[in-house]
């Protein structure tokens, strides 16, 4: 407690003494997305409103199934917030915590830019939870930038055998020339978490003699380790011409206009998942195949990916402003799994696909992006993905209106590990059919009215799920899913009310259960004091209706079906103070304070309660020199 308070007030005093750099503050950020390495500009994370929700769990979704601790395996309870399944199925439960090539942030700055962020628990009754982020980046000149980022989490957890430790980071660099541009990163991710299988008796959370969560018995004592390390290098060379741009009557500048762009993307990745359990409790599992004294399961995937693309840029022709690209991608994959105690097996796969992109990313009125790709060689031959986004922007009276439509059609082969896997407690050898998915959706928003409505519909055929015995199964029929996601914010003077309501329907809730209604409401006061200090204080609540939420199998890291315990109908309320002073943001938060006066089943999943009422603190400090 003393160390945390000292750190907090030290940041506060130094931030008050800090002075603004003024016009020298310039930070541009972007990600590299799509198979043809397009730069997608993103905003710098300096927003001072709702900084109290900076942790990965709250940012991932307004409702999540997780093990109750920061850094633990997680799945969104909102179907359309779940990412596409990975080829390495053991990675899906760690998605919000992992740095991958597509979410590496690249920078361009006028002066060196750095950020230090700390999130953690504040008082002694809370078992330590610390998250520290460090970022530094600087330009060698106006085109060349280098930097690095580290993200470290250590969370012991309120319950036994729940501790997590995570280290993610990347070294990145970029060069933005007229004809040649490049970006690259070295990425590391190491995530470790103990697995307790949940508490033994759900009623223990209400027993006075067990008022300290660490005294509540848990079911197992296992350990999971996930690693993802990667290298990515994107580079482009453009052919084009220069033209004069009149700045004023007496001033002309030249501009390079790209016409054709040649792109190469190289990605190397290594993913590994291990599960260890000393003296495993065999009664927790249906089967134990090779050892009742030690579980030591291993699975891995190494990938070498090369993509070559040719693009016709949209900038050069003012009459036909669209971009057209064609690409070919080759992935060499090496799978590793344990077939018996101490014996491993390898399988090599080589897949090749071709694709094309038609896009219009310039202009204020209408934009679109359509991508189609097809596997032409390898075990996934016949797979295809056709997806598109269309967006229109116009004014209606004094309001700005945005209409965005999205959709895709996908025919996907099941992951290698869904068809073949062997470990101490689980073994399967499947021959699944393709998974066919069709999804359409649209967003209607009025930014001036703080209104946003998103409606999504999906038809899913060949759905693969993990049944009540935690084994993968495939449903041969169709499942339809519908979601309406409404965001409407209100303001009365300095009082704000944020609202997010999500309605979901699954045509087969026995195989794909979802909460029918999910709510998030945030009521707060927002003002600026003394012309320099932005203040926000209020309370928020998260709630969803009861449903048969998924269970979790530690040995495989998969979320599974269950029909014994409904989860939901319990609100989680948080009160907070949030401040922004020049280059520093900081907050105080009392998480789950309604536990003090409400007796209810505060579970995220069956047998996995969330944390009791605890204080949390967060500080983020930017440096521009």
What does this structure look like?
The protein has 625 residues and is mainly beta. It has 3 helices and 36 strands. A hairpin with a 4-residue loop joins strand 21 (435-446) and strand 22 (451-461). The two termini are 32 Å apart.
Shape: globular
Q: Mean pLDDT, rounded to whole units?
A: 91
Tally of DSSP β-strands: 36
Helix fraction, binned, reads: under 10%
Gyration radius, rounded: 26 Å
* Helix/sheet category: mainly beta
Low-confidence stretches: 1-23
Beta-strand content: over 45%
Oligomeric state of the chains present here: single chain
Give the secondary structure arrangement, pairings included.
Blueprint: H1 2-17, E1 27-33, E2 38-42, H2 56-60, E3 64-66, E4 74-76, E5 106-109, E6 113-121, E7 129-139, E8 144-155, E9 164-176, E10 180-195, E11 222-248, E12 251-278, E13 294-312, E14 323-340, E15 343-360, E16 366-377, E17 384-396, E18 399-412, H3 416-419, E19 420-422, E20 427-429, E21 435-446, E22 451-461, E23 464-466, E24 472-474, E25 478-488, E26 490-492, E27 495-506, E28 517-529, E29 533-544, E30 551-553, E31 558-560, E32 572-581, E33 584-591, E34 603-605, E35 608-609, E36 614-623
Antiparallel strand pairs: 1-2, 1-5, 3-4, 6-7, 6-36, 7-8, 8-9, 9-10, 10-11, 11-12, 12-13, 13-14, 14-15, 15-16, 16-17, 17-18, 18-21, 19-20, 21-22, 22-25, 23-24, 25-27, 26-27, 27-28, 28-29, 29-32, 30-31, 32-33, 33-36, 34-35
